[in-house]
Amino acid sequence: MPRPNDPVDLRLISKVSSLYYHQNLNQQAIAERLHLSRLKVSRLLKQAREQGVVQISIAFPEDNFIDLETSLEEKYRLKEVVIVESDISGDAINDSMVQRQLGMAAAKYLHRTISEGEIIGVTWGTTLQAMVDSIQPKPVKGLHVVQTLGGVGPPEAKAHATDISRRLSQLLGSRLTLLPAPGIVDSIEAKNVLLSDRRVKSTLELFREINTAYVGLGALNTNPVLNKENHDISSELQHEILGSNAVGDIGLNFFDTDGQEVDTKLKGHVIGISLEELKEVETVVGIAGGLQKFKSIAGALKGELIDVLIIDNHTAQKLLINPAA
Fold first, then answer.
1. Which of 60, 125, 148, 194 is most open to solvent, judged by the fewest CB atoms within 10 Å of its CB?
2. pLDDT number for residue 173
3. Cβ(56)–Cβ(49) under 8 Å?
């Protein structure tokens, strides 16, 4: 015959709970002290929660957004959402302040999740620059940092992909592979020549081995390449992109409100990781904030281009209420 369940012993349950939660004894120590089996102690602790003898509460900090993070994770099937609090005045958000906050959050996420032997890919931009600026030195065994977009803009700029990759590698004490090519070339012919270079080719081949990629999500009105004063691309290419249905980009790969790639002539001039290659990366961490980037973030989420989102609370709330870009 099956053995009947033991009657609930509230006194013993309370005793075990007090030793475990108040006196910080582990289950083995409690078992030895009360002459119980370790399995019995485990069952009593489970009963303590079931009977309401132990009620666990979590004291969240005042600036906590756990519920909002969870709602976005479920809505967009994301591995994780990290939300930072940003100050807002009317509809305007202080971009530099948001970038610093996002950078600090991204640096903490990287420190928490990084593992030995990991291969990390990085693109370019001021948000990734802010992340690197916030990272504390932490050597990680066997780590490898890979530049996934050729150089765009002046090489001395801190937001330049080469500088970001090099500084990140130094801070993490890792191996470094740079992409020794411009991010944008003048012609398809020039691109083909560079792609045949063995050093460029070996870097591009590493893209398929990247475990985690850290990317910024660009909006058309904040992308320096599309500024009419910028000469990285021709005015003809600028007009083509601005006149298309593109809402944002990742590493100069432009996409629409559904997260589908927008086919422009610029693609034939860019040397870097493609959206197709990015989708093969195990974890893509998208870092972006500010209401001016809402359409870009929404498009990237709808197209499932990212797996982890680091974002400010105001833009996060709008994504939950009004996901349509």
1. 60
2. 95
3. yes
Q: What tens digit of pLDDT does each residue of 121-158 get?
A: 999 888 999 999 999 998 999 999 999 999 876 555 55
pLDDT greater at residue 275 or residue 223: 275
Q: How many CB atoms lie within 10 A of CB 173?
A: 12
Greatest Cα pair distance in the chain: 86
Residue 324 has pLDDT above 60, yes or no: no
pTM: predicted TM-score of the whole model, two decimal places: 0.79
The pLDDT of residue 74 is 93
Q: Which residue has the higher pLDDT, 5 or 153?
A: 153
What is the C-alpha separation between 104 and 94, in angstroms, rounded?
A: 16
Sign of the dihedral defined by the CA atoms of residues 287, 289, 293, 296, in that order: positive
